[in-house]
Amino acid sequence: MQHQKILQVKELSKGVESIVEVDWKHPDIKTFTVPEGFPSASAAQDCKSEDKEQAYHAPEIIPLYGVSTKMVPLFQESGHKKGSVLSSSEVRNIIVNYVKTNELVDEANKNFVKVNAILCDCLLDKSEQDEISNLKWDDLLSRCLERLQPLHQVTFFGQEPIVRKGKIEPIDITIAQRSSNKKVTIIKNLELYGLDPQSVANILQQKVQASATIAPVPGTKDRVQVQIQGNQIHHLAKMLLEEYQLPRKYIQGLEKAPKLGRKK
Question: What's the predicted TM-score (pTM) here?
Fold first, then answer.
């Protein structure tokens, strides 16, 4: 279209090409008609209204823990077995009750817990087993959580909770260098938070007036990533944190935003 002089494109900022002028009187535009089968402007507006009604709701994410084989002896007194799924507060209550039931609170200093044979096998490394006889409460609980299988529960708006293995991966934002020294912003893991990568690409493209595409994530079967021209982390931060209300701890790479120039 630039060659036909319908529109003019310029590189307004490094690595980002933007449309700066459109010749609305060009014959090709004046004679253009919407092809049969495409939605009319009013239908498109209805779609936009419907999209607004179906606004994005950030999922509720809760860390969970599964009882591993090594930790079964510590949890079987409370009626749990291998594979039992617990929240952090449930783990804490079980450990506190175990310590009190087995009279393991150090009488000389109640901030410490005496390490019996089960705590020794479950929570201490081999190199520590002959050296450590007491643990602080915080150390005891943190060691316990570290040795349980990490899980997480995700609940999307209007849907049943889903429990997945491992910790949830954060939305990953990186900056890559392409040909002609142009930068691109790459965003991964949007699907894990109920975000459609194609929709995010479309919205970003409209916001920053730069080309945005989606492509498979290398080495995966069912993941795609969004790629958009330029360093767009400021725009992404506003979208993800303010508009979508996602907690910052679930977004990785916001620190790579370009530094704003100082006013002279």
Answer: 0.71
pLDDT tens-digit profile of 228-259?
999 999 999 999 999 999 999 999 999 888 77
Tell me which residues of the chain have a pLDDT lower than 70: 1-5, 7, 9-20, 29, 34-54, 260-264
Alpha carbon distances (Å) from 104 to 16, 19, 99, 187: 64, 71, 5, 49
Give the number of other CB atoms < 10 A from CB of residue 26.
Answer: 15
Provide the Cα torsion 235, 239, 241, 247; round to 10°. -120
What is the three-state SS of the chain? CCCCCCEEEEEEECCEEEEEEECCCCHHHHCCCCCCCCCCHHHHHHHHHHHHHCCCCCCEEEEEEECCHHHHHHHHHHCCCCCCEEEHHHHHHHHHHHHHHCCCECCCCCCEEECCHHHHHHHCCCCCCCCCCEEEHHHHHHHHHHHCEEEEEEECCCCCCEEEECCCCCEEEEEEECHHHCEEEEEECHHHHCCCHHHHHHHHHHHHCCCEEEEECCCCCCCEEEEEECCCHHHHHHHHHHHCCCCHHHEECHHHCCCCCCCC
Q: Distance between CA atoms of 7 and 76, rounded to whole angstroms?
A: 72
37 dihedral zone (left: phi>0; alpha: psi -120 to 50; beta): left
